[in-house]
Amino acid sequence: MSRRRGMRAALAGLLVAASAVAQANPAVERAIADRLQALAAQLRAGDVDGVLAAFRPDCPTTHAAFADDLRRSAAQRDGKQLERATLRTLAGPAPVGDRWAVVVGNDADGGSLRAVLCFAVTNPATPRAEPTFAATLPPRTDAGAVLAGRFRCPPCNYELDGAKGWLAVPQLPCRAQAIEGAAFHFAGTELVCDVGVRVADPGHDALATARSLGRSLAATATAVGIAVAWLPPALAERPPEGLRGARIDVGLPGDRRARLFVVDYGGLQQVFCAMAATDTLAKHGEALDRLLASYRPLSTDCNEADAAARSLEHHTGGVLVGSRYRNERFDVAFAAPEGWQALQRCSTMAIRVVWTSPNGARLWLGIYPTPDGLDRWCPQTADRWLAELQKAAGLDEVEFPPTEWRDDDARGGKVRDLTCRMRRPNDPLAPQLRPMRVWLRDGVLTVLDGVPKEPGETATLRAAFDRLSRTK
Amino acid sequence: MTGDHQTSHQPAAPLPSEADWLHSAAELPADALPAPEFASRVLAALADERRQAPCTRAQLDAFAPPPPAPDFVAQATAKVLADRRERWREALLRHDTPEPSPEFVARTLRALAADRELPPAAQLRRLPAPPHRATHWLVLAAAAAAIALVWTRLDSIEDTARPPLQARSAAFAHAHAGSALPELLVRLEADFDGSALPAVAADGRWLAEARR
User: Fold this and answer.
1) pLDDT by residue, tens only, chain B of 212 residues
2) Distance between CA A171 and CA A157 in Å, rounded?
3) Do B197 and A364 touch (CB under 8 A)?
4) Residue A135 burial by CB count (10 A; 0-12/13-18/19+): exposed, middle or buried?
5) Residue A175 sits at the chain B interface (C-beta within 8 Å)
6) CB A215 to CB B164 under 8 A?
7) C-alpha–C-alpha distance, residues A2 and A8, integer Å
């Protein structure tokens, strides 16, 4: 079955390539190449504002994110990298909807930085290419798949097989806040449909997740619809056993609208979020239906626990066996005390495993790889990041003077112990102090965080912290 | 101690007599003396203040409250009901009904077509719903309104603790994504595990800038 799908995908790729060849227009290609050269020259001159002003954005939110990227990149590197900017074409130009799209790589960045751009081509006699869209791509993105609107992830067991007029833009892992994420842009419009993959909450089906999504948006929404059962169109007649889906519509300020869809299968959830002006969504509703109709699981023969574990191992490098967690990629292992229940809850760049003791105490292990834009973690950046996390969680560090970083002779690297207190505790009768340990080694930041349930468990949690080790 | 204190000062001069005071006042310039109407103005102001002061407790106790108007209860009930109706209307306005399914539309059209095919007399007989059916519809409508109200209240209670969708720390990598979905996924995770530190990745550029 998967071979047939592979052949179909290859055939679709060939058709897209053939279509691009058939529609190739040397004059248009020359116009786009000239425009790319002009943009590269502006980048080399440090004229970031000039580059951004050249755009007539199809999608204001995506353009704002691209502008933010470009400005921060220029500021951080003092423009030195941009002085040697070249925009080498990696795929295209190919017609996508009523735009021409091209994937470029910036050689000045070692070829790792990639972006997809769209152009509106006017005046067929002497074509003029006006940039209308740009989005940053993760390194090693399949440039052809971006233009074909195709996105496929065997470990996460799903694909969207390239709906006409859509671009598939994989998200940078740190930004997706998911095991994996992609944004589908309907070329020439502001319509975007994001997809993110997450571990399904135990006991929460697709309908419960859709309700939670509606509640999350309620504070800013003008109207929250009612979550209803829904199935991806391609599977509506004969859904695989265990596959469930739900959808909910939300009205947003400024006459905007979000349509949210959840597919729950094999212990994983794919969450789709299509957001645009109400008019745009109404006008391009069929295009959105086509995109959703191209969704399908790659395998319908999957054990729920295995499927989620396979995806997590592929994307994060971590495996959970009983109450023992082992991550070879980041050289981190943790063996919880006997009888503690473990659960993996993570995104690719913020890996999390949570253990619950028989008494109800909780212990979280968080692994943070070095984020994009930072050379490596150091005690100073680790402290800064921890302060941001504590602030967001409503925690105050209570030990004064603060404990210092010390060399970790047993495991290597540096380690720091600290204690926090909840500003507004959920349970005033429970112990209020919360022990933490931060371990910094080889560019990986590991945080152990515990919440005791009963008095005296703080010491138990601190003792459990010593179970943190390396895999090698 | 007292003796020390007394011996440390010169003996005090005697106070001038009343005649001396009057004599010295007569020698003062005219503008140094209070205006002639000063005393009368002060007395008038004090009298005004007394008139405007609230009644004492004893004075208030001397009066009995008037009996309520005959329509007091009816008016108060009507105002409460109107207020409740308005609040329900506002609550219901926050919700969109889901799109009707194709089956629902087809069934409704079939029912309408069947109605049109009935003879006029039969249609007339079907128009007024029997009393018990009307009651059912009222109960159903009230139940739907109550569910919607509870749903809305749940939302408002839970959302008071949440920042708006746009309020994200620039230290979080997903704050720089051009999409709302990452923030929604963060909130889903927070719903599931509210005690944990936020399940977010760091923005490297923000950290690099903060280090400088």
Assistant:
1) 333 444 445 666 777 777 776 666 556 666 666 777 888 888 888 888 777 766 777 777 887 777 888 888 888 888 888 888 877 877 776 665 556 777 788 888 888 877 665 555 555 444 444 455 666 677 777 777 666 555 544 444 333 333 335 546 888 888 777 788 888 888 888 878 878 888 888 888 888 887 76
2) 18
3) yes
4) buried
5) yes
6) no
7) 10
- Say if the Cβ atoms of A388 and B169 lie within 8 Å: yes
Q: Which of A192, A212, A350 is closest, CB to CB, to B188? A: A212
Query: Parallel, antiparallel, or unpaired: how do β-strands A192-199 and A268-277 relate?
Result: antiparallel
Q: Provide CB contacts within 8 A for A232, sequence distance 6+.
A: A245, A261, A263, A292, A293, A295, A296
Chain B residues touching residue A66 (CB < 8 angstroms):
178
- Scored b (16 or more CB within 10 A) or e, A169-189 reads bbbbbbbbbbbbbbbbbbbbb
A interface mutation test: which of B95, B154, B172, B207 has the most A CBs within 10 A? B207
Count H helices and E strands in chain A, helices first. Answer: 12, 27
Q: What are phi and psi of B74, to 5 degrees?
A: -65, -45
Which residue among B156, B159, B204 places its CB closest to the CB of A371?
B204
Which ipTM was obtained for this model? 0.85
Beta bridge partners of A318: A327
A100/B170 Cα distance (integer angstroms): 33
What residues does B47 pair with on adjacent strands?
none
Nearest to B97 by CA among A397, A308, A251, A272: A251
Contacts of B165 in chain A (CB under 8 A): 216-217, 219-220
Cα–Cα distance between A230 and B90 in angstroms, integer?
Answer: 28
Nearest C-alpha of chain B: how many angstroms from A347?
A: 8
Query: For residue A405, what is the enclosing H or E element?
Result: none
The angle, 0 to 180 degrees and rounded to 10, between the axes of the packed helices B181-192 and A206-218 is 110
Classified as helix, coil or strand, B59 is helix
Cβ pair B211:A381 closer than 8 A: yes
Q: Which of A348, A353, A388 to mutate to test the interface with B (most CBs of B within 10 A)?
A: A388
Identify the closest residue of chain A to B185 by CA–CA distance. Answer: A177
CB of A59 closer than 8 Å to CB of A135: no
Contact A273 B165 (CB under 8 A): no
How far B59 CA lies from chain A's nearest CA (Å)?
A: 49
Residue by residue, DSSP assigns A169-222 as EEPPHHHH-SSEEEEEEETTSS-EEEEEEEEPPTT--HHHHHHHHHHHHHTT-S
B interface test, pick of A55, A73, A77, A175 with most B CB neighbours within 10 Å: A175
Element (H, E) at A68: helix A60-76
**Does A276 lie at the interface with B, CB-CB under 8 angstroms?**
no
pTM: predicted TM-score of the whole model, two decimal places: 0.69
Of A351, A223, A426, A22, residue with least CA distance to B195? A426
Separation between Cα atoms, residue B155 and residue B145, nearest integer Å: 15
DSSP string, B78-141: HHHHHHHHHHHHHHHHT-PPPPPPHHHHHHHHHHHHHHHHS-HHHHHHHSSPPHHHHHHHHHHH
Distance (Å) from the alpha carbon of B137 to chain A's nearest alpha carbon: 21
Distance, in Å, from the CA atom of B81 to the CA atom of B73, rounded to the nearest integer, reads 12
* Cα of B189 to nearest chain A Cα, Å: 8
